[in-house]
Amino acid sequence: MEGTTTGTIERRSFLKTAAVGAAAIGAVGTAFTGVARATSPQGHLSGDQDLHLLRRATFGLTPASVARIRQIGRERWLDEQLRPSSIGDRACEDLVDRLPQLRISMRDKYETQDFDWNVMFALGQATIIRAAWSQRQLFEVMVDFWSNHLNVTNPGDHGWYNRHDYDRTVIRKHALGKFEDMLIASAKHPAMLHYLNNVSSTKDNPNENYGRELLELHTVGVDGGYTEEHMRQSALIMTGWTIDWDTGLFRYDGSDHYRGPVEVLGFSRANDSGPGGQDLALDYLRYLARHRQTAEHLATKLARRFVGDEPPSGLVDALADTYQANGTAIAPVLRKLFRSTAFRSSIGEKVRRPYEDVIATLRALRYKADAHGTGGIQGLYWVCESLGQAPLAWSPPDGYPDTAADWRSAGGTLDRWNTHMSLAAHWWPSEIRRPKLESYLPKRLPATYGDLVQDVAKELLFVKLPGEQRDAICGFFDRGAGSPLHDDDAIVTWRLSHLVSLVLDTPAHLLR
Amino acid sequence: MSTDETAITPCGCPDYERGMTRRSFLKRAGAAGLVAGIAHETAFSQLAFGAGPFTGDVLVVLSLRGGFDGLQAIVPAADPDYATWRPGVGIPANALWQLDATFGMHPAMVDLQPFWTDETFGAVHAVGMSEPNRSHFAAMEEMERAAPGSGLRTGWIDRLLGTRLHESEFQGVQMGSSLAASAFLGQTPELAMWSIDSFGLSAAYDDDELARWDTALRGLNDGAPGMLSEPALAALGALSVAAQITNAGTYLPANGAVYPDTDLGHALTDVARLIKADVGLEVAAVDYGDWDMHVDMGDVDGGWMVDHLSELSGALAAFATDMGTAGMAGVTLVSLTEFGRRIQENGSGGTDHGHGQVVLMMGGGVKGGQVHGQWPGLAEEDLVDGDLAATTDYRSILAEVLERRCGASAADVAGVFPDLGGDRPDVVQQLP
Question: Fewest Cβ atoms nearer than 10 Å: which of A251, B59, B76, B168?
């Protein structure tokens, strides 16, 4: 209903643009070239299930990742990825080690009281390094997922001394472990305590921010059936969970804890002692983590992330069952998800968000990090930022949205085209290292333009483009698919970066 | 934020930095995904039955980010408590350009005096949100959400544009940034651009090259899923319009207007260009930040505040001059800031986060030459937690502009600003 209206207006808008522009300026630009003949999303990607799994469970295909899944098969590849410690990742961690700021403890950083943003900025860079170059790709995808689910904006108000520790001891520690443990770790962490104001929530002046988001975002979800009174009680249960202002670390203060009967969604306790408030809250968090509504909420979000913007309810139910049957363990849910028919039949139904586009572009072009230092990584951070999706940086507590409709934007599309061109041509950032463009070409050039376009698409994206797209790219070079190719033609010389950029502008790269 | 920055500057107000850099161009529609298969003919026939084109004022929203200290701009010099609270940074009464019995204008705003005199520039004092919020970031979000007490997660400009037909890619434009303010959050598409001239394909160095890319990108999207092709075709449509404006040659402001050579000056220049090009602009948003003057704001003779007020005034005066009287008859410009500042100056020659703010307004329909609003006073007992009280809800100003200048119905306004109530400050004339 809503969607129909939107679709109509969108089409209407580009119909009218030409007329408006023409009326204003006296020149006609045809904004609409004809009735869209929508190829099914699957038509832009092959039906290859190995590649489908890689597109969803990693930040983008690389020759090495494709070789690996071909070698060991999807089941073993998934087993391997679900045990990230079994995968050697020294090269990536060496890159992260270029950011020594991240090694300072929360307590030591807090003692400096310098409030500088260096550690938070380093964390943003480390996140990009790992997304692009870690071998533990599914783990990194899940780190991204949970960082958004339990969002603490980086950089943000109070994160200067604690946000990097939150990344390590809350998100990374539990990303493939048990949600219950991650939820408790987040509730106790100074980053979350500050971010949602639980530090200042006391029995006399309860701040409801954390108590509300705990229900709405972290656990049962907005449709979880709780009432306003439940929400207030939720905040009261969490009173006393604060920080020690001398050290900046977690502290439970029983004297600030509200006492009296509490009840939230069937969790009810007498709550008659101050010191008992810490265990009360732990019980409450465990109760919420195991709640059926939490199971369905998390199952929906995981299915939205990995399967489709409107995940089938049968899949959500099955994943929620798995979650509950395994004591909130995450890996069994992912295994169930990736083995489902809903997943298998969802090829091409997710759109890459800007951050995913940048990282997938780096991987498709086989970029390497800076030879020294992190100047190029910093540049990549600003590229993502200017596209509207710097890692970890979403401001509201609900995390970056995860559907195509959320990201649909004309300006954003233009920015992506320009980013593809910039990375294809290696304009900026200059410090990160791109292989020679010629390395994307077959050793022996094919006879025709059409074959060349397909060779490059195959090399970078592992796809065969639909004929119309192949022809559109050939047309850019004033040729047809059957035109003979010569080794001094623009397409393989000074316009080779254009060819690469256009291949990155195809749906095959914009979808995941 | 420019893309060549390599470090985040430490700042006493990290949330301010964040607010400035995290504004997002995202669509956050909670509704279902796109429906890709609507026939072209259907859309076209519906258009034929739609309402006529928008004929109200172009609304220009100028966000003075960082917390604009309106008490230094439209100064309550005759309020005996002003000088007491601000013995150091306060503007002395004899330095002001007298506006009425209570207020004077900072001398650095001299460029705006003619517009005050001809009553196309005015101010509303003691404006604010219904609930004080002294966090830059949270206040900006809340101000641009503009729906206190509701669960809405869209922005007010998005809801406004949602009441109208979307007939142009340029209907809602954030100028001077590639990311739109959170007031645009929601389903209605907007354009965000650093500038008209930079809104382009970086590889398209001339018209032939642009045509080459345009054709190829259309081809790649021919048959692509709607969720990709729709924004792509919208971008290409806007691109060709932007290119036509750019190709019309170097822009020469009218009436001898000289914009300051600053980001603000450039952004307002481009807003004027879009209005004059008649590309369907209805709401333009422009940011002018760096008002977070906790330390060393300077005094009446110079410094940070003087520099900022001078640039602001010069840019606004140039915009109004360039647009001319006839042009400004169809424009209403409103400034907003996330909060005013603490009435008592701090120990660092600055002022801290406060509450009540001043709103500046320009336009042919503005009841200018007056300081509107109910002045609550600056005596201790009149303050809200040490801050100027807010006696006018900023949304009532915007609502009145929408109703009297922009053709909005009561139902439209109720959707844009839910639960606002009926009070209006009477600051603009009814569009004839």
Answer: A251
Whether residue B237 and residue A39 make contact (CB cut-off 8 A), yes or no, is no
Residues of B numbered 201-260 whose beta carbons fall under 8 angstroms of chain A's beta carbons: which are they? 201-203, 212-213, 215-241, 244-245, 248
Contacts of A111 (CB under 8 A, 6+ apart): none
Q: What is the pTM of this model?
A: 0.81
Residue of B nearest to A114 (CA): B10
The pLDDT, as a whole number, for residue A42 is: 61
Q: pLDDT band for A125, please (50, 70, 90 cuts).
A: very high
In a 13 Å sphere around the CA of A400, the CA atoms on its Cβ side amount to 29
Tokens of A377: 């990584």
- Residue A41: what pLDDT? 61
Query: Do B32 and A471 make contact, defined as CB atoms within 8 angstroms?
Result: no
Query: Residues in chain B with pLDDT < 50?
Result: 1-51
Which residues, in sequence order, are bridge partners of residue A399? none
In B, residues 101-160, which contact A (CB 8 Å cutoff)? 135, 137, 141, 153
With pLDDT > 70 as the criterion, what percentage of chain B qualifies?
Answer: 88
Find the residue in B nearest to A409 (Cα). Answer: B231
Query: Which region holds residue A485: left if phi is over 0, alpha if psi is between -120 and 50, else beta?
Result: beta
The amino acid occupying position B301 is D
Structure tokens at A32: 């609409």
Predicted local distance difference test score (pLDDT) of residue A330:
98
Number of C-alpha atoms within 13 angstroms, CB side, residue A293? 17
* Angle (nearest 5°) at CA B39 between B35 and B41: 145
- Chain A residues with CB under 8 Å of B19 CB are 395
Beta-bridge partner residues of A263: A268
Q: From the CB of residue B432, how many other CB atoms can be counted at a distance below 10 Å?
A: 5
Is the CB of residue B107 less than 8 Å from the CB of residue B97?
yes
Measure the CA–CA gap between A186 and A383, rounded to whole angstroms: 29
Edge-to-edge order in the sheet of strand B74-75: B74-75, B104-105, B97-98
CA-based nearest distance B17→chain A, Å: 9
Q: Is B294 helix (H, G, I), strand (E, B) or coil?
A: coil
Cβ atoms of residues A499 and A456 within 8 Å: yes
Q: What is the largest CA-CA distance in chain B?
A: 70
For residue B139, how many other CB atoms are within 10 A of its CB? Answer: 23
- Per DSSP, the three-state class of B58 is strand
Facing B201 at nearest CB: one of A6, A16, A417: A417
B127 and B73 Cβ atoms separated by less than 8 Å: no
Q: How many CB atoms lie within 10 A of CB B127?
A: 27
Contact A34, A27 (CB under 8 A): no
Put simply, the answer to whether B237 touches A41 (Cβ < 8 Å) is no
pLDDT at B29: 22
